[in-house]
């Protein structure tokens, strides 16, 4: 719900005769602050989402302009406004092409505009929107933590969201996110918000409980999936060292059900990190949907141990592969030939192993009921390995 390039255009198109030249895909970039700059020195201290404004005084040549936008892109600026009519009249086509290619909004205002008034105007709007965002985030967290206490959040959110409509939670995370210091995490938050190029006013982005949270209201799942794909693509291009994982919760109706989508997104994000996947949709997780929603993780460990401990002990003692053999046997629904092919083992060896496995387990493994506990045990193992 931040103050965005789109908000700025709506405010400034007439008041400041602002024109949008390039970087259309950055239309929804949010703005953290506004800086007037005539050289590139300060850019290396950008956190992300800064809007740069310049008269062009310090950029006399085309290559100076190209260096400027490259640095703005590298340090995750939200856009560039050029004050034309004194030090620069015509914007180089190469500059426009670069901004389009990198989704960096490029805008102009005429020389007659008083930049100090414009910057003050935008800065006040950013400040006021930040205060509003803090109130919105507090109410959304209340909806997640205390869904039954609707007095704590419903009225507050009514003026910003369709509280009776659909909600869906996405969690964005990466290795070591919760161990970052506040400043480092804030910078990363700003940058990820720029990657979410199509985020609109019916969504909110914030850090909570070791993840970045995106809550979308009354938007299609197709839109959200495109949003995620775009965020990952931009993240790889602009910050290749970041391995971003995304967990997508189920869509729910009414703000009172937000906590359900959040918990499911949390499970999906955990699975994405564990299995090194970029995106995991909770609704596509099959049996894992049940296992990840079990609050008592101890009982899951107990089920795994009860089923597999005896075979693991046998493998350790005799350097055998009975656990892997059982997993393959269950995977192929008892087909000895398929197990032999997967494990590159003679079928007679597989038959011998399965016979011993049955004895160790005290289970013939013939019926679905007999196999099910062991199948679940392997699912549990995959949750944490």
UniProtKB/TrEMBL annotation:
Taxonomic lineage of the native organism: Bacteria, Bacillati, Bacillota, Clostridia, Lachnospirales
The CdaR GGDEF-like domain, residue ranges: 161-270
Family: Belongs to the CdaR family.
Record-annotated PucR C-terminal helix-turn-helix domain positions: 323-379
Organism: Blautia difficilis
Alphabetized InterPro entries for the sequence: CdaR-like_regulators, CdaR_GGDEF, PucR_C-HTH_dom, PucR_C-HTH_sf, PucR_dom
The protein, known as: PucR family transcriptional regulator ligand-binding domain-containing protein
Domain Purine catabolism PurC-like, chain residue ranges per copy: 17-122
One Pfam family from the record: HTH_30
């Amino acid at each position: 719900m931040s103050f965005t390039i789109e908000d700025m255009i709506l405010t400034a198109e007439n008041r400041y005769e602002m024109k949008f030249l390039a970087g259309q895909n950055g239309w929804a970039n949010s703005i953290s602050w506004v800086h007037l700059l005539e050289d590139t020195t300060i850019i290396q201290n950008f956190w992300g989402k800064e809007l740069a404004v310049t008269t062009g005084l310090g950029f006399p040549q085309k290559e100076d302009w190209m260096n400027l936008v490259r640095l703005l892109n590298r340090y995750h600026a939200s856009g560039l406004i050029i004050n034309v009519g004194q030090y620069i009249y015509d914007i180089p086509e190469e500059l426009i092409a670069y901004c389009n290619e990198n989704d960096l909004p490029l805008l102009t205002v005429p020389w007659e505009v008083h930049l100090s008034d414009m910057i003050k105007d935008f800065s006040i709007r950013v400040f006021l929107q930040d205060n509003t965002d803090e109130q919105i985030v507090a109410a959304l967290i209340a909806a997640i933590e205390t869904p039954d206490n609707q007095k704590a959040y419903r009225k507050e959110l009514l003026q910003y969201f369709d509280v009776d409509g659909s909600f869906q939670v996405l969690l964005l995370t990466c290795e070591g996110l919760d161990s970052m210091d506040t400043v480092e995490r804030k910078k990363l938050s700003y940058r990820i918000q720029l990657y979410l190029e199509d985020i609109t006013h019916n969504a909110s982005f914030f850090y909570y409980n070791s993840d970045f949270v995106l809550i979308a209201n009354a938007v299609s799942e197709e839109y959200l999936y495109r949003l995620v794909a775009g965020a990952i693509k931009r993240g790889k291009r602009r910050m290749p060292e970041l391995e971003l994982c995304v967990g997508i919760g189920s869509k729910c109706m009414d703000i009172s059900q937000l906590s359900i989508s959040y918990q499911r997104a949390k499970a999906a994000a955990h699975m994405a990190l564990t299995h090194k996947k970029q995106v995991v949709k909770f609704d596509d997780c099959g049996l894992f949907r049940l296992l990840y929603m079990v609050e008592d993780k101890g009982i899951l460990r107990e089920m795994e141990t009860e089923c597999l401990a005896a075979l693991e002990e046998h493998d350790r003692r005799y350097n055998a592969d009975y656990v892997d053999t059982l997993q393959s046997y269950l995977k192929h629904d008892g087909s000895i030939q398929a197990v032999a092919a997967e494990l590159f083992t003679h079928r007679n060896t597989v038959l011998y192993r399965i016979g011993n496995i049955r004895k160790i387990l005290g289970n013939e493994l013939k019926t679905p009921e007999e196999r099910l506990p062991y199948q679940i045990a392997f699912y549990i193992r995959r949750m944490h390995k």
